[in-house]
Amino acid sequence: MKIVVCVKHVPDATAQRRFDADHTVDRAGVDGLLSELDEYAVEEALQIAAAHDGEVVVLTVGPDQAADAARKSLQMGADSAVHVVDEQLHGSDAIATSLVLAEAVRKIGDYDIVVCGMASTDGAMGVVPAMLAERLGVPQVTFAAEVSVDSGSVTARRDADLATETIEASMPLVLSVTDQINEPRYPSFKGIMGAKKKPVQTWSLADLGVDADQVGLAAAWSVVHSVAARPPRSQGVVVTDDGAGGRQLADYLAEQKFI
Fold first, then answer.
1. CA atoms within 13 A on the CB side of 123
2. d(CA 51, CA 41)
3. What angle do the packed helices 67-76 and 36-51 form, to 10 degrees?
4. Which residues, listed in sequence order, are joined to residue 171 by a DSSP beta bridge?
5. 10 Å Cβ neighbour count for 39?
6. How many CA atoms lie within 13 A of 75 on its CB side?
7. Does residue 258 or residue 206 have the better pLDDT?
8. Exposed (0-12), middle (13-18) or buried (19+): which is 59, by Cβ within 10 Å?
9. Ordered DSSP codes for 29-96
10. What residue spans of 177-239 are helical by DSSP H?
11. What is the pLDDT of residue 229?
């Protein structure tokens, strides 16, 4: 069984994040790391591979720094990695990203399951797995909180607000998992050292046969016209209760259109 895991290198949420002049996220001037939600995808892929004698290939798309996300995944236990890097990818939206991922998955070939996190921690859109499944022409089993794999099919439990759903589909398919599905492992010293010897392939858009006009900022379906820093938090309103505190509080809530 071959499992491909799509992972993303994202800016550290605890760092001071900024935008570049073209209104894209500054990914070079801030520390980055493997998206936390993708760690659950890597862990689930490793568990499935261990139970079904499979291999795990990590796939990431992004600038040079994105190799760190692939490296962390290899340290966790993945067998190999593919890094799609090309300057013309800068500014790509979810639609372009799904195109590049789909072509890379096809080039990897002979896959049974493509595993994704439920969303990236920087964009938090959660649409790429569905787009990827559509481009590959395979079923999607998304937002899984529990997964079982047996006899060429995948069964997943999806927890919604008002109900729990059970979804089953035959392989090959695209699977996305939530942060409830497992507890990602920490890379061991052995895993860290072993990752240095694992194969990492670097592909460009030309290697995938993707036209540069289909990706990048110019091809994005949405345009950011301006960005501004969040204003500093101001001091709250203090109400001194002299017997009319309740009325003052109600008047304030009404003024702010909360009631």
1. 19
2. 16
3. 40
4. none
5. 23
6. 16
7. 206
8. buried
9. SS-EEE-HHHHHHHHHHHHHHHHTT-EEEEEEESSGGGHHHHHHHHHHT-SEEEEE--GGGTT--HHH
10. 189-195, 205-208
11. 80
Smallest Cα–Cα separation from 208: which of 95, 64, 102, 50? 102
Please tell me the distance from the alpha carbon of residue 124 to that of residue 35, in angstroms, as a whole number.
11
Phi, psi dihedral angles at 29 (to 5 degrees): -95, 15
Q: State both tokens at 21.
A: 């002049």
Please write the tens of the pLDDT for every residue from 68-109.
Answer: 999 999 999 999 999 999 999 999 999 999 999 999 999 999
User: What percent of the chain has a predicted confidence (pLDDT) above 90?
Assistant: 73
For residues 78 and 57, the answer to whether their CB atoms sit within 8 Å is yes
- Integer-rounded Cα Rg, in Å, for the chain is 22
User: Token match 């060429």: residue?
Assistant: 152
Peptide bond into 139 cis (omega under 30): no
Closest C-alpha to 92, from 226, 219, 224: 219
Q: Give the tens place of pLDDT for each residue, 118-164.
A: 998 888 889 999 999 999 999 999 999 999 999 899 999 999 889 99
CA 118 and chain centroid, separation: 7
Is the per-residue pLDDT at 233 higher than 80?
A: yes
Cis peptide leading into residue 184 (ω within 30°): no
Which tokens belong to 177?
Answer: 């998992």
Three-state DSSP at 102 gives: helix
Task: Catalogue all structural domains in the chain, each as residue range(s) with its CATH number.
Answer: 2-219 (3.40.50.620)
Token couple for 11: 């800016």
The length of the chain in residues reads 259
Q: Residue 148 pairs with which residues in a beta bridge?
A: 155
